[in-house]
Amino acid sequence: MMKFYSKTLLLSSLIASSSITNIQAAKLMDAIQNAKIEGFAFGRISTLHGRDAAGTRYQLRFKPTITTGEVAGWSGSVGIFFSKGTSTPDNNYTDTEISASRGDQFFSASDRFNIGDFYITYNAKEQLNTKTTLRAGQQSPKTPFNDTNLDRALGIFIDNKDISWLNIGFQWWDSWVGDDMYISRAVYSVPNATNSISTIGSGVGNNVFMVSFTSDADFTQKTGVSYNLWYTYIHKFAPYMVFADLSYTAKFSNHSLSILGQVSATGLTDNPILEGDAQFAALFRASARDTWAAKNRGMYNIRLDYRYNFVATSGDDEPSKPIGFFGLSLGFLGSFGDGYGTLIDNTGGLKPGGGLWNSFSGAEANGFGILGVGGFRNSSIISPYIKLEAGYKKFGFALDIAYVETTHFYFLKKAGTDGNLNTVSNWLYGNGNKVAAAQLVDISPTISYKFTDSVSMTAFYGYLIGNPSMGRFRFLVTYVF
Fold first, then answer.
1. Do the Cβ atoms of 407 and 379 come closer than 8 Å?
2. Buried/exposed code over 225-252 (b: 16+ C-beta within 10 A; e: otherwise)
3. In the chain, N or C: fewer CB atoms in 10 Å?
4. In three state form, how does the secondary structure of the chain look?
5. In whole angstroms, what is the distance from residue 267 CA to residue 131 CA?
6. Can you tell me the distance from the alpha carbon of 399 to that of 404, in angstroms, rounded to the nearest whole number?
């Protein structure tokens, strides 16, 4: 009897063990079979010319992120980031772009081939019946303060979308860095120089706490109203960093008319400190800070967008389908306070006018970044702008025109350094590029063709008339996963 009992117990254990193994295997298969890949790849060439600019460079970039299927609401994500070259030449050319035999040897602080995103996600919808997601790890933060592809943060990210008109978010970053911030500290001509960050890596250690209140697409579809309100606290550096926008869209027949208002403001502490890399910290030592850093910065942007959709006639039982559109945008942006560098990225979620004036420098110094030219004390900017755009089937066209007048503007090396206002040139951007007042008109036409939903081609030309005087041609092919 004892032998029979022992055999039965052994058999039951084997069956139970086999069942558990099968369940685990099934969950693993679900995670693999339901995995998805998202991201993009592009190749582009940019060439600059004119009185104040010169250079031609290639840039290749590849950023896929693989996310497993969910198991009990949990999933994992890992992403590769490859970037070589630059789209912002400054007196440099493609002569050594191949970089080495056998494979790429990276010399620039902006070149990368490594792990980008690495995080786990818990989706509580099935388990707890709430539209809440929790994410922990490192990723490119999806906020209006950031470049959502290049900036990085290590921390916790929470979103709740139970209420259509009130989505709530919370983020805590333990370690982070903005791409524009990182590049602004790199002296390309002297890698690892005394006044640059290491090309190996760098980060900021100030804890960041962020709260957001936003509307979702369903609420906007029903009401025409869209809003975003974000508040950020950066420990020891900025007691407030605020971004808010509000828009309303009215639709009638094939027409739509939208009005958008945006405002962003950032205030620094009396003794701001950036923890982490010593060269970030050096910018805000009293001897340097007192010569350049604006304490209370602000900007605003008001924009009006009109759009008319062309539709193809169809049978009585089928809805008409848009085959093209025409659009017109008018806007004006300006600043308040003693500066206008209010974001981590130089553009973030803002919608300024023009196509070239805030995108031609490697550090993206022009625009609204906290370490950009708008961070200088007593800096200000105004910019009225207009945009015309049209599309027909797979073709697209746009013409951006903006007038920009600012007290502080970043010039490329060909412009020289006469009249440099950057009194901390040994700390910010290096001393080969000047910061000076600028008045210019940005004229930037763009044409595009969409081969498929994933593959597109864009040709862009922009010219700045005034001071500085320069032009840029860019050709880009993009694949979106």
1. yes
2. ebbbebebebeebbeebbbbbebebeee
3. N
4. CHHHHHHHHHHHHHHHHHHHHHHHHHHHHHHHHCCEEEEEEEEEEEEEECCCCCEEEEEEEEEEEEECCCECCEEEEEEEEEEEECCCCCCCCCCCCCCCCCCCCCCCCCCEEEEEEEEEEEECHHHHCCCEEEEEEEECCCCCCCCCCCCEEEEEEEEEEEECCEEEEEEEEEEEECHHHHHHCCCCCCCCCCCCCCCCCCCECCCEEEEEEECCHHHHHHHCEEEEEEEEEECCCEEEEEEEEEEEEEEECCEEEEEEEEEEEEECCCCCCCCECHHHHHCCCHHHHHHHECCEEEEEEEEEEEEEEEEECCCCCCCCEEEEEEEEEEEEEEEEECCCCCECCCCCCCCCCCCCCCCCCCCCCCCCECCCHHHECCCCEEEEEEEEEEEECCEEEEEEEEEEEEEEEECCHHHCCCCCCCCCCCCCCCCCCCEEEEEEEEEEEEEEEECCCCEEEEEEEEEEEEECCEEEEEEEEEEEC
5. 34
6. 16
Sign of CA dihedral 213, 343, 346, 406: positive
* CA atoms of 155 and 137, how far apart (whole Å): 6
Cα dihedral 130, 132, 136, 138 sign: positive
Residue indicated by tokens 């389908």: 321
- Residue that has been written with the tokens 């900021």 in this structure: 204
The DSSP bridge pattern shows strands 395-410 and 381-392 to be antiparallel
Quote the CA–CA distance of 43 and 145 in Å, as a whole number.
Answer: 26
Tens-place pLDDT, residues 253-298: 899 999 999 999 999 999 998 888 777 777 787 777 777 889 999 9
Phi/psi at 47 (nearest 5 deg)?
A: -135, 135
Kindly state the average pLDDT of the residues 60-64.
94
Find which of 11-15, 82-86, 187-191, 399-403 is predicted with most confidence, using mean pLDDT.
Answer: 399-403
What's the confidence (pLDDT) of residue 58? Answer: 92
Phi, psi (degrees; rounded to nearest 5) at 478? -125, 140
Type of residue found at 109: A
- CA–CA gap between residue 118 and residue 153 (Å, rounded): 11
Rg, C-alpha atoms of the chain = 26
Model pTM score: 0.89
- Pair of tokens at residue 375: 């961070």
For residue 18, pLDDT over 90 is answered with: no
SS (H, E, C) 436-476: EEEEEEEEEEEEEEECCCCEEEEEEEEEEEEECCEEEEEEE
Identity of residue 421: L
The confidence score (pLDDT) of residue 11 equals 47
For residues 133-146, average pLDDT: 96
